[in-house]
Amino acid sequence: MRILITNDDGINAPGLAVLHDIATEVAGPDGEVWTVAPAFEQSGVAHCISYVHPTMIAEMGPRRFAAEGTPADCVLAGLYDVLDGTPPDLVLSGVNRGNNAAENAAYSGTIGAAMEAALQDVPAIALSQYMGPGNVKLDNPFEAAAAHGVDIVRRLIADAPWDSGSYRLFYNVNFPPIPAAEVSGFEVARQGQRKNVRHSVEAHVSPGGRRFLWVKNGDQRAPCAPGTDANANLEGRISVTPMRADFTASEMLDAVGDALS
To answer: Where is a divalent metal cation bound in this sequence (predicted)?
Structure first.
């Protein structure tokens, strides 16, 4: 198996090293793992592509490339330049430092990379490690992902649906914020929404007197409904969420049609 990996935390992020180990084991002794990742951190860029300016790419080592672009740019670079138009069997994105569950999914460059792969008709999985008091001070905060990542990726490859129709499926996986030994299985869950959690900005003044705004997020441990990704993670389970790039609110089509007719 040939696997392309990327992330949004950057080429030197520890989570990418964890993902490389996962991908290497999944690919097998005769497989290949190719890395095309952002040269610098690109968290929060979602599915952005560098449409109006070029992307510099540099070879950092065997099958390892850094691109001055977004995670979606890296997937495009991997598919059409590094791999020269011969698609891999699988794209893996992550392992993100921090969860991409609930509303975070809408902002995630990790998910943006998997979405771009799916739009290119390549199977893809985004993987993220929830951070919290239970794991952030461990020697390896990515312990849960490192211990359980290979199994969950193999299960998805072997048993999950992989339709290749319009807006094909891809998968969003989040590992709970606890030590690996405490993980209590996995749950197929819908994307949730944390109650009253919003992104906002906080103003700071530099020593030179200039005013700057920092984007900040809300409480990542806020309650989320049962059956959702964040709820599963906070209860100690790995969440698996099937996703598509189709943003249509299909359940509202008839109602909107009736209202406007």
So the answer is: 8-9, 43, 96
